[in-house]
Amino acid sequence: MRYLVNESANTCLTSTSGYKSVLDRALFERAVIDVDSVVKKIMDDIPVDIFSILGMRNLSAFVGELFARSIAKEANGLFISNPHQDGYPDLLLIDAHGQTLYNALTQSVKLRDKAPFSPFPNGGLEIKATCGSVPTPAQCARKNIEKPDMGDTRIGVLQGYDWKAHHRETNNLIGILWDFQNRRPEIAAVFFGNHLTEDDWGKIVQPKEGGGRTTSVSIMTRSGIEKMYQNWILVKNDSRYIDFLNRYNHGNLISSKI
User: Fold this and answer.
1) pTM for this model (two decimals)
2) Rounded to the nearest 5°, which phi and psi values hold at 247?
3) Where are the domains of the chain?
């Protein structure tokens, strides 16, 4: 078994209007498989190291976007990508009510307008990916270890992880933890937070004047990370990831015996 699946996970998505949709856990599994196949095809078919070109930050965003597109693909029309690249949420919930709202919006405004899709009135899913944090070069030097480079598996020195958002209202969040395996990005764990509150997100950090293209960001607090851990969806069946997640969250919810 490549991934452990939490059969007790709460996968209920409540729309902004109060409509409830229970997501099939198999949807997450299919999306992971789909992402893996796309990544493999990229490595096999593109004659340059596209992942190194992207860099770690953009690559992490790319993994998240791949997963979002895969969810939309595998959900049989229940979700579509937000028409605006900066809209919220990433995937719009197109149940019967959502379809009515979407049709009305597309008839009255241009799809490229941000306001109607930030937020989308019926809600949906946010997707965030992280590869976690590792020691700084100075810390690695003190520990006499090498800092992982692009393509290096990170789990052996992983210190922690969190997710970042542009506002503190983010909920119905699919959180992805990924790592490199055989030089290519691979999803290590998927979590779903459907009870996140503003208190689960830190104070919004504004970009410094003259600080380039950085945007305002809020980092998930340990309370939010704990909620995500409590509702893990799937984890790679590898003791290194299982032990790390349990240890970091001071729990024992994930077991290879599941």
Assistant:
1) 0.92
2) -65, -45
3) 3-248
